[in-house]
Amino acid sequence: MNLTVTLTATALAALAACAPLAWRRLQLSRAKHPSLIGHQRWAKRVAAQIPGYDYDAQRFFGSDGAPHELVARRRAALARLSALYLQRYPRSLALTAEAAEGISDLQFTGAYRVPYQYSRVLREHLRVGSFMQAASGVTLTDLDGNEFFDLTGSYGVNVFGIDFYKQCIAEGSARVQALGPLLGSYHPCVAWNVQRLREISGLDEVSFHMSGTEAVMQAVRLARYHTRRSHLVRFCGAYHGWWEDVQPGPGNPLPPHETYTLRDMHAQSLHVLATRRDIACVLVNPLQALHPNSGAPGDSSLVDSSRRAGADRAAYTAWLKQLRAVCSERDIVLIFDEVFVGFRLAPGGAQQYFGVQADLVCYGKTLGGGLPVGVVCGRKDLMQRYRAERPADICFARGTFNAHPHVMGAMQVFLERLNEPAQQALYEGLDERWNQRAEQLNQRLAEADLPVRVANLSTIWTVLYTRPSRYNWMLQFYLRAEGLALSWVGSGRLIFSLNYSEEEFQAVAERFFAAAQAMREDGWWWEGPAQTNQAIRRGLLKEMLAHRF
How many whole angstroms separate alpha carbon 88 and alpha carbon 86? Predict the structure, then answer.
């Protein structure tokens, strides 16, 4: 009897001890997005089981069950596009094919421009050139002399226009020419840059790095060092570079051990921050205001028309202020990753745009004046890398090319010119101007009953589709044929520089509209009677299971 009582008491005590842990684990699970985006370990497991397979030519053109007449029209359309590309871009295509044999990046981007089932057949007929010989104003010129309107934004670098950055690089290099590539010692422009960055960020100290990824690594490391806590919080869909802790899930060979991926703009996430004791920092990428809890919108994942996006500045501002309050209360370091959006939304970056002060801010891309850079600005107590009372307890960080004289020279010119009237004028009415441009294009597309729309966060745009289709990814090739230069992800991210005139934008809108019309006429947007986004996804799942098992 006594043994039974003892065992029962022990079991109850063990249950009582485990209950708080189980409850905290449940709360953490509730704060994650219900999709695979929010469950990174499961996402990796699922990704590892997806089989590789290719459509043959017949399936490529008729994967949505379109009638034979439409399949024939699509086949003829692809042949015309292929002939057009070969005629118009021969030198660009030839050099790209030659260089791809030795450039792994080109092999990757070439394979993942479209959903992988379609990739092999498409690459046999239609390839994209990756070389340009000149850039000026808002246009790029390829090796064959073709001129394109630049919608790549140089992955976020190009805020003020190509010529602006040419001048920053040239003038900055001239300023530091006497010092050349000397490393270790600083050029005097570094001191000026630091003072200006302190004013812009509202923070005390600055450290320089060679990329945005490096800057985020250092910010997270400093947060862990000073809080003596292990975990970081990132939000579903956000990108913070490609190192292990901030890029969990598919694409990362290592599983995340000290990373919580929570739901953006959700009360349960705030509850987790308010109750756990192991969180060192929270990473915020303000770009997510355009598509909360969604990943980077590459056309390679555009298997149906369920992509959603839309920026609500007021709602996202309210969310960031709630986040700021919880982090302050719990001594959690709030990090703004402005590597992509820095100086694009406002002269003071996303902090100014949303009216929220972070503890650490990471900048990159455009701040280098066209040259590679990463920067961390932070509070004095967080930026210190050693403890005077424990001299062996340090937070080491170094980089051979940090504060490279030519990078610092271009940065100084960028920061000086940021205050000039010409650049300041571009920010006046910025949201209103670009929101109106997006609205005008959407109105024209709707009036023509074309199943495509755009959503935007200022000058960062993404393309959405209003009717179920398995071929939306074809639009990128029609846009290129109309002389619009896109980054390799396709129509998911269009980046305008702020200096686009009204006339230049209208030319882009005209070409966009023409591309959408041509794609519809070629039969890619066929509406089958039973075609829904759910039916498309269900059909793909059946295909994958059949090939897997």
Answer: 6
Q: What is the pTM of this model?
A: 0.92
Return the beta strands (E) in 290-372 as ranges: 333-337, 360-364
Residue 139: strand pairing partners? 136, 149
Mean pLDDT, the chain, integer: 92
Looking up tokens 């969990």 gives 248
434 close to 311: Cβ distance less than 8 angstroms: no
Distance CA 121, CA 115 (A): 11
Residue 144 exposed, middle or buried by CB count within 10 Å (0-12, 13-18, 19+): middle
- Residue 412's closest CA among 369, 371, 364? 369
The span from the CA of 411 to the CA of 366, in Å, is 9
Q: Which amino acid is at 48?
A: A
Which residues have a Cβ under 8 Å from the Cβ of 539 and sit 6 or more positions away?
A: none
Compute the Cα dihedral for 339, 344, 349, 355 and give only its sign.
negative
C-alpha Rg value of the chain to the nearest Å: 26
Lowest mean per-residue pLDDT among 22-36, 153-167, 312-326, 478-492: 22-36
**What type of residue sits at position 247?**
Q
Distance CA 63, CA 304 (A): 12
Cβ count near 191 (within 10 Å): 11
Question: Six-digit token pair at 70?
Answer: 């439409």
Q: Which of the two residues, 31 and 350, has the higher pLDDT score?
A: 350
In angstroms, the CA 352 to CA 62 distance is: 50
At residue 263, the pLDDT reads 94
Residues 330-382: tens digit of each pLDDT:
999 999 999 999 899 999 999 999 999 999 999 999 999 999 999 999 999 99
Residues 301-314 pLDDT 10s: 999 999 999 999 99
CA distance 423 to 116: 42
- Euclidean distance between the first and final Cα of the chain, in Å? 55
Residues 461/454, Cβ–Cβ less than 8 Å: yes
Q: Which helix (H) or strand (E) holds 484?
A: strand 484-485
Residues ≥6 apart with Cβ < 8 Å to 219: 281, 335, 360, 362, 376, 378
Q: How far apart are CA 200 and CA 349, in angstroms?
A: 8
* Cβ neighbours around 78 below 10 Å, total: 21
Contact yes or no for 114/122 (Cβ under 8 A): yes
